[in-house]
Amino acid sequence: MTDNNAIEPDPQYLHAKAWAEEYELVDRQFSSLGLIAMQELQLVHGETVLDVGCGTGQTLLQLAERVGGNGHVLGVDIAGRLLEVAARRTAHLGHVTLIKSDAQILDLPSHSVDAVFSRFGVMSFNDPVAAFSNFRRILKPDGRLAFCCWQALHENELDHFPLEAAGFPKAADERPFSLSDPQYVQTVLATAGFDAVEVRPHKELVTSGDVEAMTRVLLKVGPLGKIVRENPAIQSTVEPKLRKALESLGDQVSTRLAAAIWIVTARPN
Ligand SMILES: C[S@@+](CC[C@H](N)C(=O)[O-])C[C@H]1O[C@@H](n2cnc3c(N)ncnc32)[C@H](O)[C@@H]1O
């Protein structure tokens, strides 16, 4: 693993810790959502693809299968703790390289990758135009960009249902929804040097498994997870409320909530 000298931001520490602990449950929720965006890239064997904010690496495995052993997958993430999990999961794959860096300033050669992909890893940039301009620089002239990001909180039952169940109807953290306005996404990507920008809505019921699995993961990640992990004293009161609300949905074996995302695709102009 190379280290591009990024400092792991302290506010992200608890997020990374929670994610690293529950990545299998998160992957169950997110796998199909990421695959829809990945499919848009139409990757073929031998290509090089960059996974932005690759986290614990499920998408690295999925990308590696698509580009084959003669291709190359580069995964970048700012959180070393998540890259450690990704490194374990991809250790058997010689064509996966992990880079610890702030993706906004990722120092890869210009025109060196065929495709840039992300599953929910592009919403936290301080300067989105600078970040996407950097991806535009790294992409080959005929390269492709595809990512998924969240629609607004009120569209996302996966996020607002747990918040309401716990008595926090509004999310404290707006960052996951920073690309929820499709017009803004269009503007950012056009300013960063992309065209053929398409922002397509997708809604799907997702699950991490039964009521216990969903209770556990929703207390760790997402908007409610952020509130609980930063205020651990409230967990004992929030947990039974959330469990009861999830039980009331009726399906104890596969407890599903609707996720509303944008599938964004673009090409360098
Ligand atoms: C919501 S998680 C998604 C992780 C992974 N893509 C997945 O779907 O499992 C967002 C990821 O983006 C990473 N991230 C956030 N800001 C970043 C930045 N500026 N540069 C690189 N990675 C970043 C986080 O560390 C985290 O792993």
TrEMBL record:
Residue stretches making up the Methyltransferase domain: 49-143
Classification via InterPro entries: Methyltransf_25, SAM-dependent_MTases_sf
GO biological process, one term: methylation
The name this protein goes by in its record: Methyltransferase domain-containing protein
Gene Ontology MF terms: methyltransferase activity
Keywords on record: Methyltransferase, Transferase
